[in-house]
Every structure is written in structure tokens, then in C-alpha cells.
Amino acid sequence: MFSFFKKKKSAKSTDKVWRSTEEKVRGLGFDIDAYLAANQSVFVFYYFDETKNWLENMLTAKRIEFKELDQANGSTKVTLVPASEIKTSSRVVDALRRYSDPNTSQFLFANHYPHFYKETEVLEELIHLHETVIECCFYVSLDDPLMEVFGSEKIKNILDRMGVKENEVIQHGMVTSSISRAQKKIDANVTNELRAKSQEEWFRVNLSNGL
Questions:
Q1: Domains (ranges, CATH) in the chain?
Q2: 69: which residues sit within 8 A by CB, 6+ positions away?
């Protein structure tokens, strides 16, 4: 029997968290290498100009060929995607529709955006494009301003007591839930945001007095 109440497609997102930005960048580069070796294409989403700069530097240093989304084609293996343009640019959406495939593509986010609802919009657009469950991974450092606002120093102290090494990655559903709660708190406190070129600048101009 045909049902009008189809199950809503969703996104499965995870977080990989490192203690330092340096280790986060190293971890992202390692994962990209692994996906390319497995013949997967990689789409790396970024929200800030500063993030785009270090992505380009990292990929160039590793001699990994990449293109920006507006230059991509069917043979491009690593593509940089301006996540903030997905809701405003039909060009970006059309390119993602043509060149990304949930079966052969990996969707990686080089950082979180402070607003939860804006990230949700991006994930919902990916789901809408492909009409299937989307799996994506966010790369996080305890040095990220988003994490520092919510007491990452305390987390570092706990990790020290547990003997967690600098280069070890933390990956747990509780971490993802905690980050989402922090973003939702920002949603409730920042309603007229100012644009910024980095996550650090975003917090300086939008949450200079804290939460």
C-alpha cells in the first residue's frame, strides 16, 4: 500500500575532535589521503575565508590536487565548497548535484559554524539534492573559538588526567550532542549576526560580551 507519510531523510553527522588545530589539520589531511586511496571523491566544506586559506595550504603541501567548486568537473577528486553559499547560490547547488554522489563521495566539514540552524540548512540542502541519508564528518579542535567559549580548557585538563595523547582523536556521540547544544545556545543569543572572515573574528564581533 502506498503511503503518503514517507520517512524523512536525514543526515548522520559525527565529530572528530583533536586537542590542537595542528593535529586537526593533520587528521583531516590523513583522512583525505585514505579516501582518495579508496577511490572516493572528497568534498570539503568551509564557512570562513581563513579556513579556506589553511585548507589550500595543507592540500598544496601534501601535493593533493584540488579545485574550488566553480572549477570542478567529473574527474575532480578533492573539491572545496563554500558552505555559506549553498542556500544562496544556484550555481553552487547545481555543481553539487552534478558532481557529488553519496555512494562515492565523502562530505567533510573543516569546522563548525557557530549557528546550529545555519549548519542544519546546509545538511538539509544536501539531503534534498540527493534524496537519501547523507553521512558527513566535522573536524574540530579544542583550540577552535567555538570550543573555547564553552570551556575547552576544562576538557583538556580532563584529557591530561586520562593520559590522552596530543595526536589522539576524540569521537563520541556525547561530544557531538554537546557541540549542538552550544550552537543552539548561540542561536538564542545572536539574532543579528555580523559577517566575519574567521571563526575567531565571528565571536569577537558577535559575542564580544560572551553568553
A1: 11-206 (3.40.50.300)
A2: 79, 80, 81, 82, 92, 95, 96
